[in-house]
């Protein structure tokens, strides 16, 4: 028999009034189509597991979402506006019929029964090593603290500085950015230090 999680009861109870019937409906259809489903919370939202992750739902301020873990093999296509395969749900009638939804759930169950895995996206290609222009190297050589910080940065942090300086459209802008970069680096700051916690 399926397992209901009291955390999902609480999640539905604290959701917006428009969302409660949508979430309750989804939950009931999932349990009806998959009697052995187990409820859980993942990423702070209700999920339904059956021999692995199967589907999940969520409520937001003005819409709900519902989606399958292996959506491309079940529903096909890409997600619509909002997360999930069914777009931004604002009423129960935005969902497919119970029959169609149950069919999707049974398809998801079958994939999990067969141990089908989603293919992983191709690995990202490695970015080429960063080339530090002579004028940047010269400026760093004149400031030991900035040079030490630059050399201590991760490759991505060094790249951020070099790209910011070299992408300037005018020489005056480039010189100003270089001066600012040297000042920040001498204080041990990364290029985007303002946004770091």
Structure description:
This protein has 197 residues and is α+β, with helices and mostly antiparallel strands. Helices cover 45% and strands 11% of the residues. The protein is built from eight helices and four strands, in the order ααββββαααααα. Strands 1-2-3-4 form a four-stranded antiparallel beta sheet. A hairpin with a 3-residue loop joins strand 2 and strand 3 (53-59). Helix 2 crosses helix 4 (98-113) and helix 6 (144-152) packs across helix 8 (171-186). The longest helix has 16 residues, at 98-113. 26% of the residues are buried.
| Major beta sheet, strand line-up | 1-2-3-4
C-alpha Rg (nearest Å): 26 Å
Counting DSSP E segments of at least 2 residues, the number of strands comes to: 4
Shape: elongated
Q: Structural class per helix/strand content? A: alpha+beta
Beta-strand content estimate: 5-15%
Tally of alpha and pi helices? 8
